[in-house]
Write a structure and sequence with these properties.
Layout lengths: L1 H6 L4 H13 L1 H6 L2 H7 L14 H15 L2 H30 L14 H25 L1 H6 L11 H26 L2 H6 L20 H18 L3 H18 L18 H10 L14 H5 L4 H20 L1
Helix pairs in contact: 2-4, 6-7, 6-12, 9-11, 9-12, 12-13
């Protein structure tokens, strides 16, 4: 009881070192002097936190389980695919339910709804694309993952390293995506490739990944170029993938809520910004960025959107004065 109480809250490495010292030194074990064992193990600075498991230790324990029971290929390819599918469909399907049930309709950006048949067509195509394009591509890209220096071993990177890399990925992805997206809006590429994505003028969450296979490969480069440069830990890559999926689902969700991130985070586009892109003809749409708004502002491709915002604001002010 003394041993378990003293060691509770220590990380995995600390507990292993303490137990090793107790086994090697019977005198210490007989005395029950766990504090001495901690000192001998050279970990006296590790503060014992009774009845407290830190988030870091939970994540580390879970990660230890993963790398013990699955090999590199399974984690990098199959694990990434399963994680992507789970996050994508769990975050996207609720918006189909909202649209069909008519819930929270006052926050819907467009009054038009998609038919159940159109929604089911989207889901069927997505499953086909994901299993016949995305999964084989992930498996074939495994040597690239290894070549770019990706690792999955302990110790895990610090939160400072993870957050810095993910921020870099967001900024770089937005820049590369902007130019790739503009290229897809040229006449020939739009007609033969990008028009598939624009079949849904009233987008909902799952339409974010509804696209021609060639577009998936082309714009997918914007997502992986950051990790290719930095060679991240797999946990960083997974966090980046989760955040990127949540961002693109939110941008296509078709709803602008009071709690939407664009209401609080400067330069973030969100659903209202991207929904405008889907409503207009391909030659006049603008709003090409994936996450932020500054690229469209710098290159003047958001002028129509900003004019519309001004008109809406003036109309609201006029209504307020009449009341």
């Amino acid at each position: 009881m003394v041993l378990s109480g003293m060691m509770e809250g220590c990380n995995v490495g600390t507990r292993a070192n303490v137990l090793a010292v107790l086994c090697e030194d019977p005198a210490v074990a007989i005395a029950g002097n766990v504090a001495a064992a901690v000192a001998v193990a050279g970990i006296a600075g590790d503060r014992v936190k009774p009845h407290c498991l830190t988030m870091a230790s939970v994540i580390e324990s879970a990660w230890t389980y993963l790398i013990t029971n699955f090999n590199d290929f399974q984690l990098a390819c199959l694990g990434s695919f399963f994680l992507h599918e789970s996050v994508f469909f769990l975050s996207g399907l609720p918006f189909i339910l909202l649209e069909r049930a008519g819930w929270l309709s006052k926050y819907k950006i467009q009054t038009k709804n998609n038919t159940p048949a159109a929604q089911e067509k989207c889901i069927t195509r997505l499953l086909l694309y994901h299993f016949c394009v995305n999964l084989p591509l992930m498996m074939a890209s495994y040597p690239v993952f290894k070549l770019m220096g990706m690792r999955n071993t302990l110790p895990l990177p610090s939160w400072k390293v993870i957050s810095t890399q993910v921020l870099f990925y967001f900024i770089l992805e937005d820049f590369v995506f902007y130019w790739g997206h503009r290229i897809l809006h040229t006449k020939w590429l739009y007609k033969h490739v990008h028009s598939v994505h624009h079949e849904y003028a009233t987008p909902f969450g799952l339409t974010s990944e509804y696209a021609h296979p060639a577009e998936i490969l082309f714009l997918g480069f914007a997502t992986i170029v950051g990790p290719i440069i930095t060679g991240p830990h797999l946990i960083t890559l997974w966090l980046w993938m989760i955040l990127r999926v949540l961002e693109t689902v939110e941008a296509h969700c078709g709803y602008h809520f009071p709690w939407s991130l664009s209401n609080f985070l400067p330069l973030y586009g969100g659903a209202d910004f991207h929904d405008y892109h889907h409503r207009l003809l391909y030659t006049k749409s603008g709003n090409y960025s994936s996450t932020f708004v500054y690229m469209d502002w710098l290159f003047g491709t958001d002028k129509g959107y900003r004019r519309l915002k001004v008109l809406k604001s003036d109309a609201c002010e006029a209504e307020g004065k009449e009341m």
